[in-house]
Amino acid sequence: MHLSIRGGTTLSGTVPIAGAKNAVLPGCAASLLTDEPVIIHRVPRLRDVATIIAVISELGKDVEYRDDTIVIRHGAPLHSQAARRYVEQMRASFLVLGPILARLGRAIVPLPGGCTIGPRPVDYHLQGLSALGARVKDGMDRVVLTADELRGARFRLPYPSVGATEQLLMAAALASGETVIENPAREPEVFDLVSLLTQMGANIEADQDVFRVRGRTELGGGEHTVIPDRLEAGTYLIAGAITAGTVTVTDVRPDDLTAVVAALGESGVHVAVADDAITVDGNDRPRPITITTAPYPGFPTDLQPPLVALLARADGESVVRDTVFPTRFGYVAALNRMGAKIAVSTGAARITGVDGLTGTDLTAPDIRAGAALVLAALTADGESTITGVDQIDRGYTEIERKLQKLGAKIDRRD
Ligand code: EPZ
Question: What does CATH list as the number for 2-18+228-413?
Fold first, then answer.
């Protein structure tokens, strides 16, 4: 299967944004904290969502998909061991570790795979769970955790890791006493998990600098609608900008996209923000900018590849640094094959803007780099084919249908 894209069309129109993948994934892991039903609305049909559903189903949950709602019920007694074949496919599967441990006092989870965006260790997850009293046996290819009882503790994350913060929030919700997580991640998806856990009866005080969790002996079910996907929204805004088009994303929370709106504005794209919609109006060539990714509220690393694609056609030299995943520039070679002039050094891309790109055969290496190649192909002269579409499907629902509605010449072919 591949995407076939004929570039050069100016996009115009409106795209409704789906629920956030990165909120649904921890939400599904959180369902393991209870035997009561957990209902999640606004769930996007994505490969990564199918993967987490497979993981929790194998662990004992009974999951029913109804339109964009999933109903997660108790099926079989909870297992302590997660299936390797799924955890290898997607790093977020590792989030089941804390909930299983908290419920059963024992958890065995393979070390995760996922996007090829640089080293992604799990040491902060393990250090945090150890602080709560878990004994960790860290093997070559899996971790075995045991705990007679998880006890609340004060733990300072060395870095505001999204996954480690979520892992600790879930484990601490069922630990005895109070857990204080210092230097937590503040991504909107983390706060979305806090609202689901709170619905399930967890006692969490989450302010900007510190999260306090007073553990409960058990949690109940919950019903929750996830937040809009700010990364999908950002990608379509950049699609509008890169084609010098006018694109509106709807059903979004603009406050989650402040850094993205600022970056687009700085690059000369006209951006109009409404209550739950954002419109971009692109120029033929954006202005060059210098930008550094950072944990939220900074510019998101996940939109770094699409932004680099946009700046490849800027009218001058841009610099994009990625402090979150400094080696996340593997896709740049593909942009250069399309005629871009981008030099990568440790943690940064120096982009000399060119007048135009040329379509070619491309392979999507991961979700967001895949999206960046789609955007580059949309602005390129001639035709591009993009294989590895399953990577793009991990994070974008019906990308070709949404782009076709905006006027793009894009097809999915076998
Ligand atoms: C989440 O991954 C997202 N995934 C990623 O989105 C996103 O790129 C990333 O956060 C950063 O925003 C989900 O939410 C499911 P981290 P996560 O732990 O939690 C280092 C996408 O395309 N680190 O915040 O795995 C790590 O190496 C994806 O949707 C450790 O050193 O990211 C990285 O440099 C891909 N040890 C930094 O922290 C640890 O134990 C941030 O990683 C954990 C992390």
Answer: 3.65.10.10
